Amino acid sequence: MKRYKELFAFPHVITLALAAFPARLAYSMIGLGIFFKAEQETGSVAVAGLAIGLNSLAGSLTAGIRGSLMDKWGQKWPLRIFVPCYASLILALNSMHSKESILITAFVLGISAPPINLSVRPLWKDIVPENFLRTAYAFDSSMMSTTSVFGPVVVTSLALSSRPGLALGATSALMIIGGTALALTSVSRNWVPEKKAKGQQKLWRDRAIQLLMFEGCFIGFGWGVFDVAVPAYATQEGVQQRVAWIFAAFGIATVIGGLLGGLVSKKLAPLSALRNAYVVWFITCIPVAFTYPDWTMALVGTFIGLMGGAVQVFYFEVLEAVRPKGSQTASLGWIWSVEGSFMAVGAATGGWISEHYSPQIGLALLPTMLFCGLIILTIGKKRLDAANDVPTEEEDLQAIKDISNEVK
């Protein structure tokens, strides 16, 4: 782990990670927080599911807009406006009792979601040299994955306690703490958006971004189906209690996979690393269609998580290399808009397939969608040629000098 010790030695690295962690934890709690609030107030699982769907869809559709705002105005004011509004809306939702008010507030809550992850990602390029970006992205991805393991456990424990209101109350508090801490860090306050080149085309007309958005359609749909098919299968078999540790195994493996991805030699170009990892990721997903909600699903999920964590690291590198100038946050934001929207469609489809046919068909769709994504990246690899470059030793040394001068 020498590589990570060297990463942590750079100024602002630990500060940035710790500042954003509470807000990221809040994001990992909000979905189940909304679910339990809606279910406890209305007594309907269908209404609870609809509330989550509306919140996720609203957040996904507007992620690109929030990213574009930051690329134009910087991070200071968007965070200072979105964070308190979001935290206040969570508290408002916590005080509501009618089905209509809960559904409307859940939707508006998604629109007002603070761009926490979109804010953090471009900051790494400002605080670490080029040859440490892969390790920084790995660390960042692992921090996000860590919250996805602990957040659901925390919010479920609070929602099912004698004081269920603490679930959304704690979520609101964590967002205020983390969002404020991130906004007050010097690296966020001083972040200056890139200037676009004169006459530069619109982001969605860029051929590389179009390719990644197209790939995101299939990946989002596949994960949406998978997220519903697993609990649906376990419920049908009467072993709902196994869902938690199946997803926990997946989440922990994703953290480890991301950290291991950051240790891959920088001599391997981002695009080559992504495609190689993608192939293994697809292969590890194939057996999931033949698993049962027991140790077999947990084991296969562990391997899926390991490779998925590494893929995420290389994906961030590829995106950074191919995105148009001046789209540090909007590029990922719009891709997340597309991917998240198709994830919502996948979740609805997964529920219908599980109820009318079999959740195993839903599980089989995950490797199918990954195969489609792999084909898209293979056929369109020329659009991603910019991610085939490997920095020279001279460029690495110059980058380290530049970073050192900036933080003095």
From TrEMBL:
Identify the Pfam families for this entry: MFS_1
- Keyword rRNA-binding among record annotations: no
Annotated transmembrane regions = 46-65, 77-96, 102-124, 136-160, 166-187, 208-226, 246-264, 276-292, 298-319, 331-354, 360-379
Q: Any idea where the Major facilitator superfamily (MFS) profile domain is? A: 208-408
Q: Which UniProt keywords apply?
A: Membrane, Transmembrane, Transmembrane helix
Tell me the GO molecular function terms. transmembrane transporter activity
Would the keyword Transmembrane turn up in this protein's UniProt record? yes
Q: Which organism is it from?
A: Candidatus Planktophila vernalis
Q: Name one GO cellular component term.
A: plasma membrane
Instruction: Look up the signal peptide feature and give its range.
Output: none
Q: What is this protein called?
A: Major facilitator superfamily protein
Main subcellular localization, coarse class?
membrane
Question: Where does the protein end up?
Answer: Cell membrane
As for membrane topology, the entry says: Multi-pass membrane protein
Q: SUPFAM superfamilies in the record, alphabetically?
A: MFS general substrate transporter
